Fold this protein.
Amino acid sequence: MSKEQPVILITGTSTGFGREAVHQYAAAGYTVIATMRNLAKADPSFKDNPNIDLAKLDITDKENATALVAKVVAKYGHLDVLYNNAGYNESGAFEEVADDAARREMETNFWGPVNMIRAVLPIMRQQHHGHILNTSSMAAYLNLPLMTFYSASKAAVTSMSDTLHKEVSGLGIQVTDIEPGGFNTNFGVNSKLPAHQLPDYAPVYQRSAEFNARVFIEAGLGDLKKAVALIVRETLNPDAPLHLVVGMQGYDDARAYLEQLIGEYDGQVELTKTTDPEPDEVNVFKYIYQHAAAGKQAQLKELLVQDIMKFQTNGKIADADLLAVMQLVAPDAQQDVQQRLVTTIHGAN
Protein backbone atom coordinates (compact mmCIF):
# COMPACT_ATOMS: atom_id res chain seq x y z
CA MET A 1 0.00 0.00 0.00
CA SER A 2 1.10 3.52 -0.74
CA LYS A 3 0.57 6.51 1.54
CA GLU A 4 -0.30 8.45 -1.61
CA GLN A 5 -3.36 6.35 -2.27
CA PRO A 6 -6.69 7.74 -1.04
CA VAL A 7 -7.67 6.02 2.20
CA ILE A 8 -11.24 4.92 2.86
CA LEU A 9 -12.65 3.38 6.03
CA ILE A 10 -15.76 1.25 5.46
CA THR A 11 -17.96 -0.14 8.23
CA GLY A 12 -19.98 -3.34 8.03
CA THR A 13 -17.93 -5.10 5.35
CA SER A 14 -18.77 -8.74 6.03
CA THR A 15 -21.76 -8.81 3.65
CA GLY A 16 -23.77 -6.87 1.06
CA PHE A 17 -22.86 -3.32 0.06
CA GLY A 18 -19.92 -3.25 2.46
CA ARG A 19 -18.22 -6.36 1.11
CA GLU A 20 -18.75 -5.32 -2.50
CA ALA A 21 -17.48 -1.82 -1.72
CA VAL A 22 -14.23 -3.21 -0.30
CA HIS A 23 -13.57 -5.10 -3.56
CA GLN A 24 -14.41 -2.18 -5.84
CA TYR A 25 -12.57 0.54 -3.89
CA ALA A 26 -9.48 -1.67 -3.66
CA ALA A 27 -9.65 -2.29 -7.41
CA ALA A 28 -9.97 1.47 -7.95
CA GLY A 29 -6.66 2.08 -6.17
CA TYR A 30 -7.84 3.02 -2.70
CA THR A 31 -6.29 1.86 0.52
CA VAL A 32 -9.33 0.23 2.13
CA ILE A 33 -9.77 -0.16 5.86
CA ALA A 34 -12.37 -2.95 5.91
CA THR A 35 -14.02 -3.13 9.32
CA MET A 36 -16.46 -5.48 11.02
CA ARG A 37 -17.22 -6.73 14.52
CA ASN A 38 -16.23 -10.33 13.81
CA LEU A 39 -13.15 -10.70 11.61
CA ALA A 40 -13.90 -14.41 11.17
CA LYS A 41 -16.70 -13.33 8.81
CA ALA A 42 -14.35 -11.47 6.47
CA ASP A 43 -14.19 -12.48 2.83
CA PRO A 44 -11.02 -14.65 2.63
CA SER A 45 -9.86 -12.72 -0.43
CA PHE A 46 -9.51 -9.56 1.69
CA LYS A 47 -6.40 -11.00 3.34
CA ASP A 48 -4.67 -11.57 0.00
CA ASN A 49 -5.21 -8.03 -1.33
CA PRO A 50 -2.36 -5.57 -0.61
CA ASN A 51 -4.82 -2.65 -0.82
CA ILE A 52 -6.99 -3.96 2.02
CA ASP A 53 -6.41 -3.61 5.75
CA LEU A 54 -8.75 -5.62 7.98
CA ALA A 55 -9.74 -4.09 11.31
CA LYS A 56 -12.07 -5.16 14.09
CA LEU A 57 -14.59 -2.44 14.92
CA ASP A 58 -17.75 -2.11 16.95
CA ILE A 59 -19.23 1.20 15.77
CA THR A 60 -21.42 1.41 18.88
CA ASP A 61 -18.24 1.70 20.96
CA LYS A 62 -17.15 5.34 20.69
CA GLU A 63 -13.68 4.69 22.15
CA ASN A 64 -13.13 1.84 19.68
CA ALA A 65 -14.14 4.12 16.78
CA THR A 66 -11.88 6.97 17.90
CA ALA A 67 -8.91 4.69 18.53
CA LEU A 68 -9.19 3.01 15.14
CA VAL A 69 -9.39 6.31 13.25
CA ALA A 70 -6.31 7.56 15.13
CA LYS A 71 -4.47 4.34 14.26
CA VAL A 72 -5.34 4.69 10.56
CA VAL A 73 -4.16 8.30 10.43
CA ALA A 74 -0.96 7.44 12.30
CA LYS A 75 -0.21 4.70 9.75
CA TYR A 76 -1.18 6.44 6.51
CA GLY A 77 -1.02 10.12 7.38
CA HIS A 78 -4.55 10.86 6.19
CA LEU A 79 -8.10 9.55 5.97
CA ASP A 80 -9.96 10.70 2.88
CA VAL A 81 -13.30 8.88 2.98
CA LEU A 82 -15.57 7.46 5.65
CA TYR A 83 -18.25 5.10 4.37
CA ASN A 84 -20.82 4.46 7.11
CA ASN A 85 -22.40 1.28 5.79
CA ALA A 86 -23.07 -0.93 8.83
CA GLY A 87 -26.71 -1.41 9.80
CA TYR A 88 -29.53 -3.91 10.19
CA ASN A 89 -33.30 -4.20 10.65
CA GLU A 90 -35.32 -5.14 13.72
CA SER A 91 -38.49 -6.37 12.06
CA GLY A 92 -41.93 -6.45 13.63
CA ALA A 93 -44.84 -4.23 14.56
CA PHE A 94 -44.05 -1.31 16.85
CA GLU A 95 -45.72 -3.04 19.80
CA GLU A 96 -43.86 -6.30 19.19
CA VAL A 97 -40.30 -4.95 19.14
CA ALA A 98 -38.83 -4.94 22.64
CA ASP A 99 -37.27 -1.77 24.01
CA ASP A 100 -33.77 -3.24 24.19
CA ALA A 101 -34.01 -4.43 20.57
CA ALA A 102 -35.18 -1.01 19.38
CA ARG A 103 -32.39 0.72 21.28
CA ARG A 104 -29.76 -1.67 19.87
CA GLU A 105 -30.93 -0.85 16.36
CA MET A 106 -30.75 2.89 16.95
CA GLU A 107 -27.31 2.44 18.54
CA THR A 108 -26.05 0.65 15.42
CA ASN A 109 -27.88 2.46 12.63
CA PHE A 110 -27.72 6.02 13.97
CA TRP A 111 -25.34 6.39 16.90
CA GLY A 112 -22.78 4.16 15.18
CA PRO A 113 -22.40 6.61 12.26
CA VAL A 114 -22.40 9.48 14.78
CA ASN A 115 -19.44 7.88 16.59
CA MET A 116 -17.56 7.43 13.33
CA ILE A 117 -18.25 10.96 12.10
CA ARG A 118 -17.14 12.45 15.41
CA ALA A 119 -13.91 10.50 15.09
CA VAL A 120 -13.08 11.61 11.54
CA LEU A 121 -14.27 15.23 11.50
CA PRO A 122 -11.24 16.70 13.32
CA ILE A 123 -8.95 14.91 10.85
CA MET A 124 -10.90 16.04 7.80
CA ARG A 125 -11.11 19.63 9.07
CA GLN A 126 -7.35 19.69 9.53
CA GLN A 127 -6.83 18.21 6.05
CA HIS A 128 -9.38 20.63 4.52
CA HIS A 129 -10.83 17.73 2.59
CA GLY A 130 -12.76 14.52 3.06
CA HIS A 131 -15.94 12.75 2.03
CA ILE A 132 -18.46 11.21 4.42
CA LEU A 133 -20.77 8.61 2.87
CA ASN A 134 -23.76 7.70 5.04
CA THR A 135 -25.95 4.74 4.15
CA SER A 136 -29.59 5.65 4.66
CA SER A 137 -32.51 3.99 2.89
CA MET A 138 -35.66 4.77 0.96
CA ALA A 139 -37.34 3.50 4.14
CA ALA A 140 -36.45 6.93 5.54
CA TYR A 141 -39.19 8.32 3.29
CA LEU A 142 -41.54 5.37 2.91
CA ASN A 143 -41.72 4.61 6.67
CA LEU A 144 -42.51 0.98 6.03
CA PRO A 145 -44.73 -0.97 8.46
CA LEU A 146 -42.94 -3.67 10.47
CA MET A 147 -39.77 -1.57 10.06
CA THR A 148 -40.58 1.22 12.51
CA PHE A 149 -37.20 1.57 14.16
CA TYR A 150 -35.23 0.87 11.00
CA SER A 151 -37.17 3.58 9.18
CA ALA A 152 -36.74 5.97 12.11
CA SER A 153 -33.01 5.31 12.29
CA LYS A 154 -32.55 5.88 8.56
CA ALA A 155 -34.67 9.04 8.65
CA ALA A 156 -32.35 10.25 11.41
CA VAL A 157 -29.30 9.45 9.23
CA THR A 158 -30.76 11.36 6.29
CA SER A 159 -31.57 14.36 8.47
CA MET A 160 -28.09 14.26 9.99
CA SER A 161 -26.50 14.09 6.53
CA ASP A 162 -28.48 17.14 5.43
CA THR A 163 -27.55 19.27 8.42
CA LEU A 164 -23.95 18.05 8.52
CA HIS A 165 -23.53 19.03 4.86
CA LYS A 166 -24.68 22.57 5.69
CA GLU A 167 -22.12 22.81 8.47
CA VAL A 168 -19.01 21.33 6.82
CA SER A 169 -19.34 22.03 3.09
CA GLY A 170 -17.40 25.28 3.56
CA LEU A 171 -14.54 23.35 5.19
CA GLY A 172 -13.78 21.22 2.13
CA ILE A 173 -15.72 18.23 3.47
CA GLN A 174 -18.39 16.55 1.36
CA VAL A 175 -21.36 14.57 2.66
CA THR A 176 -23.41 12.11 0.61
CA ASP A 177 -26.51 10.31 1.86
CA ILE A 178 -26.73 7.00 0.00
CA GLU A 179 -30.37 5.99 -0.34
CA PRO A 180 -30.88 2.42 -1.63
CA GLY A 181 -34.14 0.74 -2.46
CA GLY A 182 -34.33 -3.05 -2.62
CA PHE A 183 -31.16 -4.95 -3.50
CA ASN A 184 -30.19 -8.60 -3.55
CA THR A 185 -28.15 -8.65 -0.34
CA ASN A 186 -28.37 -10.43 3.01
CA PHE A 187 -30.53 -7.62 4.39
CA GLY A 188 -33.64 -9.78 4.72
CA VAL A 189 -31.72 -12.74 6.13
CA ASN A 190 -30.00 -10.50 8.69
CA SER A 191 -33.28 -8.89 9.80
CA LYS A 192 -34.30 -9.85 13.31
CA LEU A 193 -37.90 -10.95 13.93
CA PRO A 194 -39.75 -10.34 17.21
CA ALA A 195 -39.91 -13.17 19.69
CA HIS A 196 -43.72 -13.05 19.71
CA GLN A 197 -46.09 -11.85 16.98
CA LEU A 198 -49.54 -10.56 17.97
CA PRO A 199 -52.48 -11.96 15.95
CA ASP A 200 -54.05 -8.49 15.64
CA TYR A 201 -51.21 -7.45 13.33
CA ALA A 202 -51.70 -10.32 10.87
CA PRO A 203 -53.26 -7.96 8.24
CA VAL A 204 -50.20 -5.69 8.51
CA TYR A 205 -47.88 -8.64 7.93
CA GLN A 206 -50.02 -9.57 4.90
CA ARG A 207 -49.77 -6.06 3.40
CA SER A 208 -46.03 -6.02 4.07
CA ALA A 209 -45.63 -9.36 2.27
CA GLU A 210 -47.62 -8.01 -0.67
CA PHE A 211 -45.40 -4.91 -0.82
CA ASN A 212 -42.25 -7.04 -0.74
CA ALA A 213 -43.67 -9.34 -3.40
CA ARG A 214 -44.28 -6.34 -5.64
CA VAL A 215 -40.71 -5.20 -5.10
CA PHE A 216 -39.32 -8.63 -5.96
CA ILE A 217 -41.70 -9.52 -8.79
CA GLU A 218 -42.80 -6.29 -10.46
CA ALA A 219 -40.26 -3.59 -9.69
CA GLY A 220 -37.27 -5.89 -9.36
CA LEU A 221 -34.19 -5.49 -7.21
CA GLY A 222 -31.29 -3.21 -8.02
CA ASP A 223 -27.91 -4.42 -9.27
CA LEU A 224 -25.51 -4.39 -6.33
CA LYS A 225 -22.32 -4.21 -8.41
CA LYS A 226 -23.64 -1.31 -10.50
CA ALA A 227 -24.82 0.55 -7.39
CA VAL A 228 -21.44 0.25 -5.69
CA ALA A 229 -19.67 1.21 -8.92
CA LEU A 230 -21.73 4.42 -8.97
CA ILE A 231 -20.83 5.15 -5.34
CA VAL A 232 -17.12 4.62 -6.10
CA ARG A 233 -17.31 6.96 -9.11
CA GLU A 234 -18.97 9.70 -7.08
CA THR A 235 -16.59 9.44 -4.12
CA LEU A 236 -13.90 11.73 -5.55
CA ASN A 237 -16.35 13.81 -7.58
CA PRO A 238 -16.23 17.38 -6.22
CA ASP A 239 -19.85 17.76 -7.34
CA ALA A 240 -21.12 14.49 -5.84
CA PRO A 241 -24.80 14.76 -4.87
CA LEU A 242 -25.89 15.17 -1.28
CA HIS A 243 -28.64 12.58 -1.89
CA LEU A 244 -27.51 9.64 -4.03
CA VAL A 245 -30.41 7.34 -4.90
CA VAL A 246 -29.50 3.81 -5.97
CA GLY A 247 -32.16 1.49 -7.36
CA MET A 248 -35.14 2.64 -9.41
CA GLN A 249 -37.65 0.76 -7.26
CA GLY A 250 -36.74 2.89 -4.27
CA TYR A 251 -36.70 6.03 -6.40
CA ASP A 252 -40.18 5.40 -7.79
CA ASP A 253 -41.71 4.50 -4.42
CA ALA A 254 -40.10 7.39 -2.54
CA ARG A 255 -41.07 9.89 -5.23
CA ALA A 256 -44.69 8.69 -5.11
CA TYR A 257 -44.69 9.07 -1.33
CA LEU A 258 -43.20 12.58 -1.44
CA GLU A 259 -45.74 13.67 -4.06
CA GLN A 260 -48.52 12.31 -1.85
CA LEU A 261 -47.08 14.22 1.11
CA ILE A 262 -46.96 17.48 -0.87
CA GLY A 263 -50.58 16.90 -1.90
CA GLU A 264 -51.53 16.40 1.74
CA TYR A 265 -49.78 19.63 2.72
CA ASP A 266 -51.43 21.57 -0.09
CA GLY A 267 -54.82 20.15 0.84
CA GLN A 268 -54.63 21.53 4.36
CA VAL A 269 -52.87 24.85 3.68
CA GLU A 270 -55.93 26.87 4.68
CA LEU A 271 -55.93 25.13 8.06
CA THR A 272 -52.23 25.84 8.45
CA LYS A 273 -52.76 29.55 7.73
CA THR A 274 -55.08 29.82 10.72
CA THR A 275 -52.13 29.17 13.03
CA ASP A 276 -50.12 32.23 11.90
CA PRO A 277 -50.13 35.32 14.14
CA GLU A 278 -52.03 38.50 13.34
CA PRO A 279 -49.89 41.24 11.75
CA ASP A 280 -49.42 43.09 15.05
CA GLU A 281 -48.52 39.92 16.97
CA VAL A 282 -45.52 38.70 14.95
CA ASN A 283 -42.14 38.25 16.65
CA VAL A 284 -40.20 41.40 17.36
CA PHE A 285 -37.58 40.90 14.65
CA LYS A 286 -40.15 40.45 11.92
CA TYR A 287 -42.10 43.43 13.24
CA ILE A 288 -38.98 45.62 13.07
CA TYR A 289 -38.21 44.41 9.56
CA GLN A 290 -41.76 45.21 8.44
CA HIS A 291 -41.38 48.77 9.75
CA ALA A 292 -38.09 49.68 8.08
CA ALA A 293 -37.55 53.26 6.98
CA ALA A 294 -37.94 53.93 3.26
CA GLY A 295 -35.09 52.36 1.30
CA LYS A 296 -33.51 50.88 4.47
CA GLN A 297 -35.05 47.38 4.51
CA ALA A 298 -32.00 45.55 3.10
CA GLN A 299 -29.63 47.35 5.48
CA LEU A 300 -31.96 46.71 8.41
CA LYS A 301 -32.21 43.01 7.56
CA GLU A 302 -28.42 42.66 7.54
CA LEU A 303 -28.19 44.38 10.91
CA LEU A 304 -30.96 42.21 12.38
CA VAL A 305 -29.17 39.06 11.23
CA GLN A 306 -26.07 40.18 13.13
CA ASP A 307 -28.14 41.00 16.22
CA ILE A 308 -29.92 37.64 16.13
CA MET A 309 -26.53 35.89 15.97
CA LYS A 310 -25.40 37.85 19.04
CA PHE A 311 -28.67 37.10 20.83
CA GLN A 312 -28.34 33.36 20.09
CA THR A 313 -24.72 33.36 21.29
CA ASN A 314 -24.90 35.62 24.32
CA GLY A 315 -28.60 35.85 25.16
CA LYS A 316 -28.47 39.65 24.89
CA ILE A 317 -27.93 42.52 22.48
CA ALA A 318 -25.91 45.60 23.38
CA ASP A 319 -27.71 48.94 23.67
CA ALA A 320 -25.50 50.36 20.91
CA ASP A 321 -26.72 47.64 18.55
CA LEU A 322 -30.34 48.36 19.45
CA LEU A 323 -29.76 52.06 18.80
CA ALA A 324 -28.35 51.24 15.36
CA VAL A 325 -31.52 49.27 14.62
CA MET A 326 -33.75 52.14 15.73
CA GLN A 327 -32.05 54.50 13.29
CA LEU A 328 -33.23 52.31 10.39
CA VAL A 329 -36.85 52.10 11.55
CA ALA A 330 -39.56 54.35 10.10
CA PRO A 331 -40.05 57.41 12.36
CA ASP A 332 -43.75 56.77 12.98
CA ALA A 333 -42.99 53.22 14.23
CA GLN A 334 -39.97 53.93 16.43
CA GLN A 335 -41.85 54.30 19.70
CA ASP A 336 -43.73 51.02 19.20
CA VAL A 337 -40.56 49.21 18.09
CA GLN A 338 -38.63 50.50 21.09
CA GLN A 339 -41.32 49.25 23.46
CA ARG A 340 -41.30 45.80 21.82
CA LEU A 341 -37.52 45.62 22.03
CA VAL A 342 -37.51 46.53 25.71
CA THR A 343 -40.21 43.95 26.46
CA THR A 344 -38.67 41.15 24.37
CA ILE A 345 -34.89 41.58 24.55
CA HIS A 346 -34.49 42.94 28.04
CA GLY A 347 -37.24 40.63 29.29
CA ALA A 348 -35.22 37.67 28.01
CA ASN A 349 -32.11 39.01 29.69
Q: What stands out?
A: Residues 279-348 form one domain. The CA atoms of residues 11 and 259 lie 33 Å apart.
